[in-house]
Write a structure and sequence with these properties.
6-stranded mixed sheet; globular; 33 helices
């Protein structure tokens, strides 16, 4: 990797002076002359940071200091490159005129969350982040309407930031990037009063460095760099462009590359229940590692830094690569990925890769005459979908003929296949179950994921995978060796040929402490430090020998209240493609797209696991109830005790709503429940049906769609679900009252279900009549509402109220809520069934 190009480091740090400037500390006397070379007040602060904090780095720091100082007044070619990258990352702000008296340094301005910049959000609905380093503290993570910054908070944050920078290994851009992520993630990149402060300094710095790396690799001539720079200036001033300026604005400079793992659904869920639970978390984490490893491997092929990863998570990644190099090498890269994955997974998993060219004009907002970066985001996703029709073409014609069209004799009797995944392989009997090397490996990985403190990834020589490869071989094929480290573990030895190590502190952002830096060393091997979220909530139990093991699905079912059933919860963001494509509208720049994707990732990979872990109480001597199989990107998959899933779904939705600040970006859920012996793949399919075909198809009477949950085969809006959940609690109080108060008999629930059946039959009859145009829609609604279900409801509930005087008030209130015009008679079966399952034995 090119560690020696000062342009990339300068691009990463060009605006760091905005952070220092907002502390209101004066420049050192020796730096006063910098004002004469700079255009704005923050640039000298950037130069001072480079001089004071990174002066010992083994790079040409004099050049880096000059580049950050001159990025708004460039004259030399390398200064123009940094300036160009800055403009393309945030064109509207880079080109705007700022004042020299610190307009960019207003400390009281807080970062407006990108979610409240999406279409449909009024200024009154804006939410802001409190100035704090990144953590899972609720006050830091969730934006509020009243959050403001201050000089004092900037000073405190700056002190901690510079203290951490001092620990960064000399010349290590990866660790520096992680420190920037921790401390600048909610610092607004621009605080002028006429601009909405919705882009974080971190994402602006990172995307500027990514673009700069591409510009460096494109090797534009000095004349072209200057011409393109002039063209952007003229475009901003709405001045006429020369033909060459116009040509360069439309010349591809970068390639937006998307990779998408295909086959994940079957890979995760098409397992037998026998022993599946122990390996499921390992499979899920392997998919995550594999996606990240391949993204990192591709970057190494182009000698790029992690700044060029725009997003990775949810089984896919977006990379920004130099255009000409990508056009030349991407086909070969795709062929190697396809060949390795075929050899290891025999078609169960593949990686679809597509790219689209990105010109300077594509980085600009539409209002600035550009194409808006979101269009490219959508284009590359469409290209990946098209690749699904040519899934194995990267194997080449001979490879496809050999692997797909020539029949082979394989021993495929039941005794020759794994009892967990049904594939052939190196079979061994473990715990009376026949398992292949993949399933044994995923079980081992699942065990290793219990309470690790660090993840170590060594960069090693790429190794051809053996015939019976496991997950470690798959990662080595792409030049990575992975180790999960626990408290007290002896560190792994330095692998032969290792060229660097990456040490990730798990589920904590304090990753550069003295203990970590002292402990994780392997002689002269370069080591980078970072942090990441593990997205883990794995249930545990003691086996017959008292050993702590991963709980099976049957154990989760036993943790249910009432009937001992298992459930699956699936959730994802509604219309995420439209959110990315249209949500930011004409303001869709690469910085905002990066901020938006990272915000979603933070919620699903960090916050959702934290919520799930609250339901696992093994450490308190109770049963664990949830198994978070997957959370990342914009969706999640949880297996667990059925009775906790509705509550978990509602908490996740409520927190997501708080995060985005309203209902303009919504989340839907599908819950399926069954006996624990029901096949997991079928339960997963039922939950997918509940999510995709019911919750996402739900439409309210006012036309508003989605933002719904499907539970007990019934879709409803979250607002109605909360109402039903409230009445469920009221029913449980009557069925299981505290103290000496007599209980309401469970026959009450049967009556409610009978009444709903009458209502449903009546509704189906009148709907048929309405379809045949025998009655109008209004007549249908009236006939449905005033049919005999209503007087039977009144009769039966009144009888129960008379016989159970102590519950009369609650029953009368329930009656009124059901029969009123916006009553929940249509959801009465869900209410009764929910309460019935919670109070049923066994």
């Amino acid at each position: 990797m090119d560690r020696h190009n000062p342009v990339i480091l300068a691009a990463l740090l060009h605006d760091i002076g905005k952070f220092g400037e907002r502390t209101a500390e004066p420049l050192p006397v020796w730096a006063e002359p910098f004002h004469h070379e700079a255009r704005y007040t923050h640039e000298p602060y950037s130069a001072v940071f480079v001089e004071e904090q990174l002066g010992r780095w083994p790079l040409d720091m004099t050049t880096v200091r000059r580049l950050v100082l001159k990025h708004h007044a460039p004259s030399l070619p390398d200064e123009l490159l940094v300036s160009l990258a800055d403009r393309l990352s945030a064109y509207e702000r880079a080109e705007a005129e700022g004042d020299r008296e610190g307009a960019r340094g207003r400390a009281e301005t807080a970062l407006r969350t990108v979610f409240s910049r999406l279409l449909g959000v009024s200024a009154d609905g804006a939410r802001y982040h409190e100035l704090a380093d990144l953590s899972l503290d609720r006050r830091a993570l969730f934006p509020r309407p009243d959050a403001v910054g201050s000089v004092e908070s900037y000073r405190a944050l700056w002190e901690r930031f510079t203290s951490e920078v001092a620990r960064v290994p000399l010349g290590d851009l990866r660790t520096l990037l992680a420190v920037l992520r921790r401390f600048t993630w909610v610092i607004p990149s621009d605080t002028r009063r006429d601009l909405i402060p919705d882009i974080s300094l971190y994402h602006h710095l990172k995307t500027t460095a990514a673009i700069a790396a591409c510009l460096v690799r494109e090797e534009l001539g000095e004349f072209d760099v200057r011409t393109l720079h002039d063209g952007l200036t003229n475009r901003w001033k709405k001045a006429p462009l020369t033909p060459r300026e116009e040509e360069l604005l439309h010349r591809p400079l970068c390639a937006l590359v998307k990779g998408d793992i295909s086959g994940t659904q079957d890979f995760l869920y098409l397992l037998t229940s026998r022993g599946a639970a122990r390996g499921l978390r390992g499979r899920s984490f392997y998919l995550q590692l594999l996606t990240e490893t391949i993204a990192e491997w591709i970057l190494r092929q182009f000698q790029l830094h992690p700044t060029n990863v725009l997003f990775v998570g949810g089984g896919h990644f977006y990379l920004l690569l130099p255009y000409r190099a990508a056009a030349e090498h991407l086909d070969g890269i795709q062929q190697r990925i396809a060949r390795v994955l075929w050899k290891i997974h025999k078609g169960d998993l593949s990686l679809l890769v597509a790219s689209v060219p990105v010109a300077a004009i594509d980085f600009l907002e539409e209002e600035a005459g550009g194409n808006a970066f979101a269009a490219k985001w959508g284009d590359v996703s469409r290209r990946v979908n098209e690749e699904k029709q040519r899934k194995w073409q990267d194997l080449g014609q001979e490879g496809m003929r050999r692997e797909l069209f020539i029949s082979r004799q394989r021993g495929m009797t039941a005794e020759d296949t794994c009892q967990v995944c049904h594939n052939a392989g190196a079979l061994e009997i473990q715990d009376d179950v026949r398992k292949c090397q993949h399933c044994r490996g995923f079980e081992e990985l699942g065990r290793l994921l219990r309470d690790p403190t660090h993840l170590v990834l060594f960069t090693v020589p790429e190794a051809e995978p053996p015939e019976q490869a496991d997950w470690r071989d798959a990662l080595r094929a792409f030049g990575t060796e992975a180790w999960l480290i626990h408290e007290g573990d002896v560190l792994p030895r330095r692998p032969p040929g290792a060229t660097e190590a990456r040490v990730y502190t798990l589920d904590a952002t304090d990753f550069l402490d003295e203990d970590t830096c002292r402990r994780f060393r392997w002689g002269d091997l370069p080591v980078s430090y970072d942090f990441r979220w593990l997205a883990d909530a794995t249930p545990r139990k003691h086996d017959e020998h008292g050993q702590e093991v991963i709980a099976e699905f049957a154990d989760l079912a036993e943790a249910s209240q009432g009937v001992k059933w298992l459930g699956v919860l699936r959730m994802d963001v509604d219309g995420l493609g439209d959110v990315f494509k249209n949500g930011l509208g004409a303001q869709a720049t690469i910085s905002r797209m990066s901020t938006l994707s990272e915000s979603l990732r933070l919620f699903f990979e960090a916050w959702v696991p934290r919520l799930c872990r609250e339901y696992n109480r093994f450490q308190q001597g109770k049963k664990d109830a949830l198994y978070l199989i997957y959370a990342g990107g914009d969706d999640l998959f949880v297996v667990g005790a059925w009775s906790v899933l509705p509550e978990l779904a509602e908490r996740i939705r409520d927190d997501f709503r708080e995060l985005v600040g309203g209902d303009h970006v919504t989340l839907s859920a599908g819950i399926a429940i069954e006996h624990p012996k029901f096949p997991l793949y079928q339960l997963a399919a039922n939950a997918r049906h509940a999510l995709d075909d019911q919750a996402k198809e739900f439409q309210r009477s006012n036309g508003r769609a989605k933002d719904a949950v499907s539970f007990l085969q019934t879709a409803m809006g979250w607002e109605e679900f909360a109402r039903i959940a409230g009445w469920k609690d009221a029913l449980l109080q009557m069925l299981n009252p505290q103290g000496e108060e007599p209980a309401l008999p469970r026959a009450f629930l049967m009556r409610l279900m009978e009444i709903h059946a009458l209502y449903a039959g009546n509704r189906a009859r009148w709907r048929r009549a309405q379809r045949l145009r025998e009655i109008t829609h209004e007549q249908m609604e009236e006939l449905i509402h005033y049919d005999k279900w209503q007087w039977r409801l009144v009769y039966h509930l009144s009888r129960f109220a008379e016989r159970h005087e102590q519950h009369r008030e609650t029953i009368d209130r329930l009656l009124r809520e059901i029969v009123q015009q916006d009553g929940f008679i249509a959801r009465l079966r869900v209410l009764a069934r929910w309460a019935e399952l919670l109070t049923r034995e066994g």
